[in-house]
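Write out the 3D structure for:
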Amino acid sequence: MRRLWPDPRDVDDVSALVAAEARPSHPDRPWLLVNMVASLDGAIEVEGRSGALARPADKEVFFALRAVADVVLAGAGTVRAEGYGPPRASAERRAIRRARGQADVPRLGIVTRSLDLDLDAPLFTEAEQRPLIFTCESSPAERRRAAAERADVVVTGEGSVDLSAALTTLAGTVGVVTCEGGPRLNADLTAADLVDEWDLTISPLLVGGEGDRASRGLGVDPRSYRIDRLLEGDGLLLGRWVREPLLS
């Protein structure tokens, strides 16, 4: 892997580089980053999944960003489509996390209005930490009760999940949240002005079709981000952009 910006050089340890990047918590919520991969023409999936766009360099950054997270956040649709399992970590990574005062592995957080989840899936039954489920008051009460047997259920908002309130419940105990999509969740986080950092891998593929973009929802006033780091590896460009006022 090679860093192209800000100071070009070879990078031997991507995890150490990512871990050294500043991610200060807010007084009322954790730092939130979004991590996505997209093709040259903006597609974020091939045949319904993102894996075809990735290469080893992207996976290296993906796991490095998971490694700094206290919570890995995703929408229920992404959890289903990508076949999520419980977060894992090598013995070496566990030791590094412990030294930073973190749990051995990040906790999985799922955003869902319908609670359409397989509660017998390994992401619940084999999790080292009980997953978090963020839902709203209009979600089916019976499903909430069932989910509470396998996860910690947080109810915020009436007809949809109040993401600001959801993140506020993590203040003081969670420092970094890494969001892995999907597009609707990314758009809702953007609309609520909660995205501190956007990590995007650009894959050298043109895929055409009518696939989703990284953020899809109601339009908002444009948010300004500045590039903080750009890597190159396996033909991919892997960038980190930070919300303009935050690290200036």
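The CA atoms of residues 71 and 111 lie 12 Å apart.
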